[in-house]
Design brief:
- The protein is an all-alpha fold.
- Helix content is 81%, strand content 0%.
- The protein starts with a helix and ends with a helix.
Length: 77
């Protein structure tokens, strides 16, 4: 009896399983999504650009402080 019950459960489940055409259709629908490798590359680019922007900002702030100091020490009287 146990084998017959198992076969009945399997046959009841079969209609809800995905077919090869269902999987192919799903792959086609997901073709516009980014892959894990693409997301990792995007993340690396983002971090590199953020690092470059940070150092540019530090450079500009340093130049402004130096200019302000120069003007204050030479033309402050």
């Amino acid at each position: 009896m146990e084998l017959l019950e198992r076969v009945i459960k399997i046959e009841a489940t079969l209609p809800s399983l995905a077919s090869k055409s269902d999987v192919d259709m799903l792959r086609n629908d997901m073709s516009h999504m980014a892959t894990k490798v693409e997301l990792q590359a995007l993340r690396a680019d983002f971090h590199r650009d953020l690092n470059m922007q940070t150092w540019r900002l530090i450079g500009v702030c340093g130049a402004l402080v130096a200019t302000t100091y120069f003007i204050a020490t030479h033309f402050g009287h």
